[in-house]
From TrEMBL:
Binding sites annotated in the UniProt record for Zn(2+): 66, 99, 102
Protein name per UniProt: Cytidine deaminase
Family per similarity comment: Belongs to the cytidine and deoxycytidylate deaminase family.
Pfam families xrefs: dCMP_cyt_deam_1
Amino acid sequence: MSRSETVTAPMDDGGWEPLRLAATAALANAYVPYSKFPVGAAARLEDGSIVSGCNVENASYGLTLCAECTMIGAARMNGGGLITAFYCVDAQGEILMPCGRCRQILNEFSTAQTQLMTPSGVKSMDQVLPDAFGPRDLARIAASGAEH
Ligand SMILES: [Zn+2]
């Protein structure tokens, strides 16, 4: 089944508040001397734990890490797991949409049931990254034995 065939029921509001709070708390750790644009991100993993991350800039601007990157690193350092829900905020607490690169990063650790809070409401991973390239594409080619 593709992700677009799956209907995800919205999580009740009580499920989002701990994520909003964790993302907001992560803002304090952001390293943003250049943009002055701190970002905090948080996700609930399938075991119920919550992980968070902040953006970390670099003098070589292109090397800047988005909050989603450090959040996924934290998730891996704490045993890993798939994301069930994701939330990202700016310095004013406004909901932010993950950038294109981070949608791909989140997709790697998401399922058809993963929900993302977005400025336009709760969405599935497939809605924010339709027809995504992912681990299944690599597995499909490996399983086929196709070589060049
Ligand atoms: Zn990003």
